[in-house]
Backbone:
């Protein structure tokens, strides 16, 4: 989404990090995605490094804020969603509902799913709090804060686990994200053998 917002041409390549392929580990010894390979061979690993590189090398459509305070707030929210939200919601649901199924790691743990669902409601309240006071989550303009939050929510919404009707402010914000040309291609991604819930692809839910 960030690459499209910045109008940077790119080609996506699917990598299954749990396969631990030698060629991929040579690019990123940590064995995690995302990894971005530039035409000149420069290889960047991790969303943080990629975000910062894109911001420093492409000034069009800034996504990290225009002032130092704005950048600090956007970075705070990126950390909130990539660390706190991920630990309390995304990782729990994806592990229990997807990874265990495809990696044959046993049956889902109901207590983890319940815990994630409770945590998600608190995070949706916070998204509503931000959306009611700002044009976008991080301020006046769309930013990496919105992209990061929407990325996590998209994974969960695919499974139908977001109680949108109880959090209409968060729903309105997410609908704005879904309607952006940069986000629409993501809604076409499918997990083999696990189709999304019917509303997932609808721009207006």
Residues:
């Amino acid at each position: 989404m960030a690459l499209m917002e910045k109008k940077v041409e790119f080609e996506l390549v699917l990598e299954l990090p749990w396969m631990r392929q030698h060629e991929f580990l040579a690019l990123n010894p940590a064995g995690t995605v995302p990894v971005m390979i530039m035409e000149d061979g420069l290889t960047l690993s991790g969303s943080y490094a990629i975000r910062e590189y894109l911001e420093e090398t492409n000034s069009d459509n800034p996504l990290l804020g225009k002032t130092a305070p704005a950048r600090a707030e956007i970075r705070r929210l990126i950390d909130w969603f990539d660390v706190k939200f991920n630990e309390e919601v995304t990782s729990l649901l994806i592990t229990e509902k997807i990874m265990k199924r495809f990696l044959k790691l046993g049956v889902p743990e109901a207590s983890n799913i319940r815990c994630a669902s409770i945590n998600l409601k608190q995070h949706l309240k916070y998204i509503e709090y931000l959306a009611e006071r700002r044009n976008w989550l991080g301020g006046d303009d769309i930013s990496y804060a919105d992209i990061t939050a929407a990325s996590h929510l998209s994974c969960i919404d695919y499974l139908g686990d977001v109680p949108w009707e109880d959090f209409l402010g968060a729903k309105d914000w997410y609908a704005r994200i879904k309607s952006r040309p940069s986000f629409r291609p993501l809604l076409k991604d499918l997990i083999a053998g696990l189709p999304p819930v019917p509303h997932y692809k609808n721009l207006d839910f």
In short: The chain has seven helices and two strands. The chain has a mean pLDDT of 93. The chain has two domains: 2-57, 68-201. The helical segments are 2-5, 22-27, 47-57, 68-102, 110-133, 144-159, 168-178.
